[in-house]
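#dry-run=false #mode=assembly
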Amino acid sequence: MPQFFSNKRLILLLVGVIFLVALISFTLRDRDHASLPEQIIKDVVGFGQSIFSKPTQYITGVFDNVDSLLNTYEENKRLKSRLEEFAKLQADVNDLASENTRLREIVDKKDDLRDYEPIQATVIARNPDQWEEKVILDRGTVHGVKKNMAVITAQGLIGKIKLTTPLTSTVELLSTQDPNYRVSAMVAGQNEVFGLIEGYDEKRKELILKRIDSNIKIEKGQKIMSSGLGGIFPKGLLIGEITEVTTDDFGLTKLAYVKPAAEFALLDHVMIAKRSMVTIDGTDGEDSTTKEEDES
Amino acid sequence: MNRLIIPSIAVVLFYLEPVFGLFSPLDIGGEYRFLIPRFLIMYLIFISIYYSRNRAMLYALLFGLLYDVFFIDIIGLYSFLYPLMCLIASFIVKYIHQHLIVTTIMSLILIAGLEFVLYYFFSFIGLRDMSLQIFVRERLIPTMIANSIFLVVLGWAFKYVINARMLQRLNQPN
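#status=ok
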């Protein structure tokens, strides 16, 4: 192929490769904001994308409806058997909620870590090459979305916002392999036990809850919720259920495998949880020392 | 036929990819199978073979850049790989017969090559830690099956549209 290696082309190719490698390494760094041209491209492409994905979701919605219609009889039977139980539970919850507000009034405490405003959003695209676990939503900074906010479905927590532009936002799902991805969580129970969700076991399809005090007993089947102590997530978003408890590599703390409550496949409508209480700048559960280093 | 037909098909395919991406991963027998749509690059390879190499590389650069910015957030990955695929395709095609079946197979081989390059890239930068065996079983094979179905169904249409446009351009040089 003599014409391919003519001098001019070779130089052009080399310069191009060097330029691209430089661009890759520049954009690989953990950036806080998308640059202006990126934001413009993302918003324009995102607009086109929502035109394409909304009809698709309508069609899949129709199929889902037909599917649930076919299961109606079975489901109805099962639900009826639980109805009685539910009424009792409802009464209990009402009772507890009113008692809670009364007690709050007595101690004059208005803010609650649990309060959040949901921002409804639609998934307009999933990263098609799926090397990173990302989805793109049709809500951005103009709708009040900020970086690191929690993203939930009706079942539970699915991820957090990684990047925002005025009209779109990118969500990194909990099933990511990113080693810097952490969510501060707690084991719900008589006394709350805190830990960090760190990592995802791809073989088991389960999250890993680390750094649990080894003196505290936790059991299989207990529910894991977000603790709200990371500064951005509201408290009490369901993450999943413990399936196995072991000790970690060093034998100092406990480690639990958590089966996520939400499905990560076939996402369509999600909610972004905007915490009502003051949020703290930073990532949820990020190591504070690295943050300080970044700022200094 | 309008001169915008070729780029507008590319735009439609660009937007269709993530829509198909919404259905993946498929849960088959307790294991996830990733079907990665590669419609656009297959179309661009066809343009590069049947229409014009330079035009194909221009589109590849443009759509690769959009892909990088919108989905990957690593600029320079697809905007390098897409034109490279078109370039390789245009070189190989000089040595083979331009029959539809041959070009279809060649496009699929190039897609497999692209998947391998991406696998090594993401392993290298440490975003994914996946063994080669799992990669082949969970990603490569389902992806190849899905994309070959797509290309078998629509490959002739691509060729037809591109050839029609080519003829039109030859008839009225301006």
